[in-house]
Write a structure and sequence with these properties.
By secondary structure, the protein is mainly beta. The protein is built from one helix and 16 strands. The chain has two domains: 38 residues, no CATH class; 174 residues, Jelly Rolls (Sandwich). The strands form four sheets. A seven-stranded mixed sheet has the order 5-7-6-9-14-11-12, with no helix packed on it. Strands 8, 10, 13, 15 and 16 form a five-stranded antiparallel sheet that branches. A two-stranded parallel sheet has the order 1-4. A hairpin with a 2-residue loop joins strand 11 and strand 12. The chain is globular and about 50 Å long. About 13% of the residues have low confidence. The structure holds calcium ion. The site of calcium ion (CA) has 6 residues, from strand 15. The site of calcium ion has 6 residues, from strand 15.
Length: 233
Amino acid sequence: MSRSLIWWKATSVTVKAAAACVVGVTLGAAVLVGRCAVTQPQRTEPVLVSGAVITIDAVPAAPPGVVVVGQATDFGGPHASGVNALRGLVYFVPNGTSHLLNTASLSPVAVLYTSRLDISPRSWQSGFPGVPGGRNEWFQISYEGEFVTARSGAHQFELLSDDGSRLFIDDHLVVDNDGRHEPQGAQGSVMLQPGKHRIRVGYFQGPRFEIALQLFVTPPQGARQILDISRVL
Ligand SMILES: [Ca+2]
């Protein structure tokens, strides 16, 4: 049976109690004893166990007016309730785009969710079901979320993609695999402490039909694997 880690709930528990307060002063003779009402946060740091399931209350919602992709696709689909996931915002980009664009100047056309990026090189013709103006080329996806590691030390990441991709951990660029290209890998590593970390992956598809997007991690004293943020690394 796998263990479950309810990270987001465990760190926000607050208890109220009317209790006797005892204050001891070690260097003096004064000892104050009285009754008082206290509100104290009870921070219960979760025990980090590699492989434990991470459950959450909610993932970031879709921006107003943005279509939620209603069927599973290679890039993600509807959110599976309670499972930690990346949120991916889909943008259409101009024909001929040669690299990832700054999404601040773009408006998302769809949102999807996935706990892992594991799209091996393949032909992709379906597009995004239910998304107006659907297309299978000239789009960009910005994934973001959080993952939890139980390990301390150098974590190696690898992005294999067709076309470009980039990985940011805690807002630092770790892997740069940008540009229009066939399936191609790039690597980078980052020192991490146990706990929760922010992750962002940018991906863009240039001309149809070929796609690929795989995010691997090799944690300290661990094996190379697809990063799955629904479990503690
Ligand atoms: Ca391509």
